[in-house]
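Hi everyone,

Forwarding the result from last night's run.
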Amino acid sequence: MTAAVHWHSSEQMPEVPDASAKLLVGASVHLKGAPWDAYARLYHNVYNVEGKRIIRPDGFFVVIQTDAYADGEVTPRNVLLPQMILAMGWRLVDVKVWERRAADFFQVPFSQVFVFAPPGSKHSRSALQKHKDFFQGIWRFPQAKGGELAAYPPGLCALLIEAFTAPGDLIVDPFAGTAALLGAAARAGRRAIGFEINEDLRPIVVANLGEPAQTTLAVAVPKPAEDSPAEPAPTTEVTATPAWSRGYDVSDLRAVADLFRAHDAGFTQGAFTPVKEATIADWRAAGLLHTAMVDGALVGAACIERAAAARTIRDFAGADIGGVAPGDVVIKRIAGTAESLIAAASAGSSRAWLEIWQERAADRALAARLGFTWAGSKIRASSEIVGVWARGVPVAPPAAAEAAALVRLDLPPLDSAPLAAQLAAAQWADHYSGYNKRHSWTACALRGYGGRADFIIKPAEMSKKWKSEHADEMWWSLADTPLRAALPAAEPLIAAIPGAKHRIRLMRLRAGDGELSRHADITDPDAGVALGRLLRIHIPIVTNPDVKFRQWLLDGSEREAHMAFGEAWYLDTRKPHTALNRGHSDRIHLVMDVVSNPALLDLLGCTAPPAARSDQAQQEMFT
């Protein structure tokens, strides 16, 4: 890809288009002899005006900052600069420590790394690309000794590039310095633009960008004086193709990827779901990419394969939707105007399968128009709903019980006031999940693993890393905690729900800004409505009218509800859902995971679906 350094102040960055940068990397700069107040105008222009203009809505702003020592005094930049940026409206989403194991030309061995998102954005660090080092609290990347050639070491550059961007994305460094980050970005298949005013660094910049085997170098010269005639800026260019492109023109790959990104906007939730340029290259090399052109313009694209072997398609609950037979046409992703592509690819086959974003009404209409029938839906861990449609294959819609979501149980009114009066005994623990916005969700256990009130998690749901670090906890069994004995008023509510109880917890969502962002607990192997699986039941103990639950259903529709006093509700946590508390009081629910049984399903108004695995084994686990 390309890296460009422009030799003028970044207080104006006309070379960077609006809303184009996925990553903005900043720092405090050193103005000789200037007091801290002198920096205010510079940072206002670079970070508040230009930074907000160039950042993408889903982008990130990373500031790497070190305190300054001079004349025996400390300038606390690690406090002053973040405060200034927060006052500009940027959202702080994470803080890290970079341990530089500094060489002798630095006085401070650590820097702090502040991660911001654009004002008004909703995404958090969970939207980052997966990188093995990012979620470590301390980043350990030793800095080169004795020179400026690599101000940012390769390991730090790689982390920033791989965690915050994808191939083809734009990185902007307004204080480029030696351009070590920009060169690394270009070699990793990203676009990079930097700004620097120290002309003495030009030879080092050229050295850091000058690896002609992998990158295009375009180093711009300073703008001419206003009274001088403008001349085209000379450039030095060395072009080559990055390995991930498989020899295809990167601009062509980007055009197709952009079409998918536009089509998918608002329907993809995870960092790995969006189609990237490297994915397009892989599809094209495998003969799976089909594109439609009108008057020389790209208007449609699809990933289409013809099945070479039989395989089974399963829905979100593990139920068999149908079987793909050899020769079946399988359309896995579509973008733009793809109708003609689907029709042409499936014309020679009596059987075809189509996967779409089920929430996207236009895709559902397209599938129906082409004669496809909805067979069921998959739900990804990142909470996208993938609709599976079939043509020429007999299919049946999902069982009513599996389709149920956000349903009030048919029970007489429950009296939660006695339990509300005993809540002072509760000791709340912060919920571990990444969708716990602003740490506004806390819980405590009446029944849980290890019999501890503060152990609110289920070990089987946790990551491989957590499991390896908590081997002993993996053997803990379910038991009542001391909190259950301290809350006797909970017992009538627990008994009102028929069936064996798994975990029993109190869950609190903070008043005003309490939020659980969209997520789906699809990784829990025990959740479901089939006999022996676990249903999540909510009973409001403390609530207000501004507490809202929102759930997305298998057919692509959505439902919103307020759970009121005296009610009990079933929330299918496998399906995407959110919870908000915009009221003036905390929301506290008694939440039970209950083993599915006919009496409980009757309260939901449905019957048990066929089990995807042994009901008896599930029942024995929890009774």
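The longest strand covers residues 55-65.

Cheers,
N.
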